[in-house]
Amino acid sequence: MEKLTPEEVYNRLLDDYDIKSLDGKIQFFLGDVDIIVKQKDVVGNIVQEWLEGWFKKREIAYLPSDNPQLPPDFYLDPDDKKHSLLEVKAFNRDASPAFDLADFTGYAKAILKEPWELDTKYLIFGYNMSDEGIVTIKDLWIKNVWEISRSSDKWALNVQYKNEQINKIRPATWYANKAKFPLFQSLEHYLSALEQTLVDYPDTRALSIGWRKKMQDSYNAFSGRKITIPRWEDIEEIYQGKK
């Protein structure tokens, strides 16, 4: 089995496989009836399963994760679950990204213990589906989590907030030319926004106590790279403007 990095997977799909030139369809068989599926909301999950099939057919090493709530989806080195981590996302290219990046509270806890999750690469498929159910991949990206994240009016980090509950971390429209909220410039700024959201959200205020130092120490110990997470008040104007 060949071991590839996330970037190499991206390049193979884009250049060698020429994925943007291909057409596909989703078929469902039951008894003597078969149909072409035309519901766009199922494409995202199918793309992830298709990628696993692509790995198998090309004898590319991988190991699927057993936790769908947190990244990654795949370990590209089955012998090393701390490097070459890949998360797969897909969205209708005719609309804004509607997928979740991670469960908010679970993720904030998990990265303290497993800081390598922060180095997960996001392989993102932007697809179109025609009225006849023909699927094409219009765009493909490989990104770090902070490169597809932003702030928001209410929270330092863009999240799904319903019924006074924060559920998920939500993405930015990273490919837009003009956006109200800019993308985060670094991992450290992304973590600053995450910490501030933990502080501001009553259900995670207790978790936020000491979180910044624990996160710095944990990531430094794992990566050997010293990071310093700034206080949100020192960078807030960059991402939310003057108030």
Task: Give the CATH topology.
Answer: ECO RV Endonuclease, Chain A
Going by CATH, the architecture would be 3-Layer(aba) Sandwich
Residue stretches low in confidence (pLDDT < 50, at least 5 long) are none
In DSSP terms (H or I, runs of 4 or more residues), the helix count works out at: 7
InterPro entries: Restrct_endonuc_II_NlaIV (IPR019064)
Pfam family, one: RE_NgoBV
Protein name: NgoBV family restriction endonuclease
GO molecular function: type II site-specific deoxyribonuclease activity
Main attributes?
single chain; 6-stranded mixed β-sheet; 31% helix; ECO RV Endonuclease, Chain A; alpha+beta; 243 residues; 3-stranded antiparallel β-sheet
Brief description of this entry?
With 243 residues, the chain is an alpha+beta fold. Helix content is 31%, strand content 22%. Pfam families: RE_NgoBV.
In words, what does this structure look like?
The structure is a single chain. This protein has a single domain, classed as ECO RV Endonuclease, Chain A (3-Layer(aba) Sandwich). The model has no long low-confidence stretch (mean pLDDT 96). It has 243 residues and is of the alpha+beta class. It has 7 helices and 11 strands. The radius of gyration is 19 Å and the shape is globular. The strands form 3 sheets. It has a 6-stranded mixed sheet. The chain has a 3-stranded antiparallel sheet with strand order 7-11-10. Keywords: Endonuclease, Hydrolase, Nuclease. One of its GO terms (molecular function) is type II site-specific deoxyribonuclease activity. Pfam families: RE_NgoBV.
